[in-house]
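This part of the workshop introduces the protein records we will be handling. To make this concrete, we reproduce a full record directly below:
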Amino acid sequence: MRVKERLLRQWELGLEPYSKTFLMWLVCAGIAGVACGAVGAAFFHLVRWATGMRQANPWLLYLLPVGGLVIVFVYRACRMGTERGTNAVLESAQQGRRAPLRLTPLIIMATFITHLLGGSAGREGAALQIGGSMGGWLGEKLRLDSRSQRVMVLAGMSAVFSALFGTPLTAAVFSIEVICVGVVYHSALLPCALASLVSYGTAVALGTVPEHFAVRGAAALSFDNSWRALLLGVGCGALGILFCVAMHTASHLYQTKLKNQYLRILVGSALIILFTLAVGSRAYNGAGMDVVEAAITEGQLVHPAAFLFKLILTAITLGCGFRGGEIVPTFFVGSTFGCLVGPLLGLDPGLAAALALVATFCAVTNCPIASILLGVELFGAEPLLLYLLVCAVSYLLSGNYSLYSSQMTLGSKLTNPPPEMPVESFCH
């Protein structure tokens, strides 16, 4: 009897709280996964339809000013600013200030208009905002405590990211890594993983198509590949800094020089149209995943300066108030840069495009683990050690730059994190 009592006592003190937490997240993350997967799948089909319509009807570009005015009007009518975006979701996870649920239909509407009419933007910014607002709302409705509600924000982010890109492993890790540079919020791993996997299954069942590319060239680790990949990582670190500076500078210039939001988005629309006509190609409008695929699978470029054209057009688009995301444009910029520079370093252009994509993603998000996993899910595991090398280099050399101004930083990339962290910090 004493042995039985002792075991029961150990269970009450040791495993019982963990088992209850496991069951709680099994239910809550499962609910978030189904809900976010369904919304993510609907959003996926909307964006794909908008892309097809834009490509079939080039004249839609000239309606961009009208679409921009609609976005500003609706956001103002709903008392939501267009400037915060993903930063608002990161802050809701860090500080417990829940992003309102109305952010979900707003970002879907605005991203749809941006893609339909030819703005340069991606999908993941919308994915993080949709998932974060839905996750926070579900956490509140499920009567979770404040810390668990913040974890639900991360689970929602993972779920919609997974639904849109078909990368559940990357999605689960990205959400717990992006909040705080240098710290991974491990206690959110289970809910993010569960929500990501359930959402992925839900989205695939609803007709989404996961992203995957066949990489050209020898991808195994060798001495020749290693030093060439290292130099490519250096270039991607610099490219990541350039991308972040361009995005933040464009946003700052718009907001300081053009105080009126309607005027701001009209000027931005005019610049997008003029830029598109000047380069003589529609390849830089929308997300541009077809260009990414051509660079990786065929080693082909639309133009030697394609990465610069995409970078500039994305900064113009998102800076003036159009909505979407920066990550798919980062894929475009990184892959076309790698396809251009790779042959100069002696790398196959397709392999270099894949390596540069993950390295540039790492440089702008400061998420090296998620970046390595992204490479595995998009391109396969054969170049795994090369992913590790280019991401380690680009992560260090990108310094304190980030796409997200609300991303927290503890310590320095040059040293270990400080031994003492704020008690109330989300990353503690």
Observations:
- Strands lie at 180-181, 408-409.
- Confidence is low (pLDDT under 50) at residues 421-428.
